[in-house]
User: Which sequence fits this backbone?
């Protein structure tokens, strides 16, 4: 196996025109990615009057915290949705990861009937009922308008299980055997050896599950009907009012309350922030976590 | 697939290897079954039972139950092919998916190559972190941002106007809107998709670059002959797997970004299913039939893609099939010897 190629561009040599082209292209791209986020922050910190006068500015005009204060006012829609989403996302992630890691570890062992179980898992990847049967099933189980329903629908994913399983299979068996010989029980070995060694994969897929739950809008929109059970994305959809710009254009007024642009953007930033905070810590595991499941080079 | 000669490395056997009856074996593996149980139950209740609900597609739906209602055979499917909107949405979906492949497949590859050619590891890390981040933002939020940024008299429009240009209504022009779909899809996903390519480039032997440099190859030639040729198998594989997305077209994005003026021009199949199910007078039987049609075609396309990629790389996407086949081959060999 060849030694790892970490940046063949980094060998000592003079900076040439090509380096400059690469740097400039990537920096432009960087700005294209960052400016929209920056614009959210700027808009959320500006007064509405300042925004209407000059919609694009790189620095908040007439700096104000009023938008954030109104967004996080006691009993506000966003605060309720925030609380609900944190509960759903955390419980869902923990529950989902426990169920998936257990199944993945079991599937990485040898046992009687493994092929049947594996087929049972794999088939789920190929066939699914689609929206209506799933929706009616949730109704039949009396889970509509409950957080349990939302959590259950996003709980597990067979493709995640298979990748976590591959992570377990990649651990050299000597490590597990030597732990067992040293007198550790199976359960101790599982928690002290297998889980830590599979950490990149488990961390990566915990983040994915968390983000799926945090960003979920489709099923929450269909299942949750009480407004005090709003989740963040559903709430955001309602206040961002996907079409309010066109309503303004065509002159027709949309139903329901309209929200000032500053309030909208403050809400958006409040929803993005938690992911921004968690993401850098897990990002370092990504490449490893993703490559485990993909084609072996 | 046929090339695999040696058996895959087996997972350690914790149970002692003694010939024993099936019951002893089952008893020995009891904890394994216990670990599997929650996921098996979850799949049963939240996947297989709803999946069996596709029989609705062959029934006239009666409110309240999945299982009642009279059988009407293939009537719902006949109706599907007799409904102009359905046919139109299938057409739109296929065209949009092909356009997506054209406009969204190459950028991640270019990005990966540029990142691998970039000097300075710290800056490279920061850039990569930023490029990957939008993948974790929901389309609800991105659509909200887009609708704000590109609104008439919004930030971008106002900049254009102050530069002396004319006001453009980006969101209500079907042509511009479609371009926006591809641009935003790249904005969100290219950094994420480039991870796989970057990892592939990291696996290329660096001595190849040194040797090429000694031979006097310039950087573009090195990129072409070493980087790209090293990425060729994975590029081919990724492209083939795109076949299976032909009938999807990206519901999350379309559904959140569309507005009444342009929605009919991007009415993909999933959006059509949503609309006939939740907006008009619902006929769950018909909706299910349209959904079933979509997933059956999707399944066939996935199988085709899987076979093709198997031919190209000699490796199936799901190694399980491979393992089964290897076992068969080994058994056969054992039998012959």
Assistant:
């Amino acid at each position: 196996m060849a030694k790892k190629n970490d940046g063949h561009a980094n060998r000592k040599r003079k900076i040439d025109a090509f380096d400059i082209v690469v740097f400039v292209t990537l920096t432009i791209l960087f700005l294209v990615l960052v400016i929209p986020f920056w614009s959210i922050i700027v808009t959320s910190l500006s007064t509405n009057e300042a925004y209407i006068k000059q919609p694009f500015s790189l620095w908040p005009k007439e700096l104000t915290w009023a938008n954030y204060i109104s967004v996080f006012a006691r009993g506000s829609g966003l605060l309720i949705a925030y609380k609900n989403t944190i509960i759903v996302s955390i419980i869902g992630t923990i529950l989902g990861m426990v169920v998936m890691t257990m199944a993945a570890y079991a599937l990485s062992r040898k046992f009687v009937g493994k092929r049947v179980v594996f087929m049972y898992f794999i088939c789920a990847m190929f066939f699914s009922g689609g929206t209506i049967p799933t929706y009616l099933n949730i109704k039949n189980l009396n889970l509509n308008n409950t957080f349990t329903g939302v959590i259950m629908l996003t709980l597990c994913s067979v493709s995640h299980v298979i990748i976590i399983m591959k992570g377990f299979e990649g651990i050299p068996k000597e490590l597990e055997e030597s732990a067992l010989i040293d007198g550790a029980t199976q359960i101790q070995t599982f928690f002290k050896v297998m889980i830590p060694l599979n950490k990149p994969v488990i961390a990566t897929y915990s983040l994915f599950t968390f983000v799926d739950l945090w960003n979920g809008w489709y099923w929450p929109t269909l299942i949750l009907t009480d407004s005090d059970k709003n989740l963040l994305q559903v709430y955001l959809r309602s206040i961002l009012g996907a079409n309010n710009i066109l309503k303004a254009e065509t002159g027709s007024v949309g139903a329901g309350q309209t929200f000032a642009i500053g309030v909208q953007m403050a809400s958006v930033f409040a929803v993005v922030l938690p992911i921004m905070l968690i993401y850098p810590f897990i990002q370092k595991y990504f490449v490893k976590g993703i490559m485990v499941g993909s084609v072996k080079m | 697939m046929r090339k695999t000669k040696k058996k895959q490395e087996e997972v350690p056997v914790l149970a002692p290897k003694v010939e024993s009856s099936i019951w002893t074996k089952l008893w020995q593996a009891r904890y394994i079954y216990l670990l599997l149980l929650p996921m098996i139950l979850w799949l049963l209740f939240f996947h297989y039972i709803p999946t069996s609900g596709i029989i609705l597609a062959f029934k006239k739906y009666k409110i309240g139950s999945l299982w009642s209602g009279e059988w009407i055979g293939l009537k719902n499917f006949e109706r599907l092919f007799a409904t102009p909107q359905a046919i139109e949405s299938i057409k739109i979906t296929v065209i949009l998916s092909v356009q997506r492949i054209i406009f969204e497949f190459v950028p991640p590859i270019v990005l990966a190559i540029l990142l691998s050619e970039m000097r300075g590891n710290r800056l490279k890390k920061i850039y990569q972190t930023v490029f990957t981040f939008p993948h974790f933002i929901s389309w609800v939020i991105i659509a909200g941002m887009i609708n704000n940024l590109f609104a008439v008299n919004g930030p971008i429009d106002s900049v254009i106007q102050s530069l002396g240009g004319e006001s453009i209504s980006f969101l209500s022009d079907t042509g511009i809107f479609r371009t926006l779909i591809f641009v935003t899809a790249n904005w969100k996903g290219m950094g994420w998709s480039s991870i796989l390519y970057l990892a592939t480039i990291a696996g290329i032997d660096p001595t190849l670059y040194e040797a090429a440099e000694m031979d006097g190859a310039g950087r573009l030639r090195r990129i072409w002959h070493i980087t790209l040729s090293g990425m060729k198998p994975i590029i081919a594989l990724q492209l083939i797997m795109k076949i299976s997305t032909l009938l999807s077209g990206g519901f999350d994005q379309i559904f959140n970004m569309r507005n009444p003026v342009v929605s009919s021009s991007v009415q993909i199949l999933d959006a059509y299913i949503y609309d006939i199910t939740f907006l008009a007078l619902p006929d769950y039987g018909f909706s299910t039939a349209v959904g079933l049609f979509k997933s059956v075609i999707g399944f066939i396309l996935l199988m085709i893609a899987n076979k093709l990629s198997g031919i190209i790389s000699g490796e199936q996407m799901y190694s399980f099939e491979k393992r089964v086949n290897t076992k068969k081959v080994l058994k056969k060999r054992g039998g012959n010897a």
In short: The CA atoms of residues 283 and 321 of chain B lie 39 Å apart.
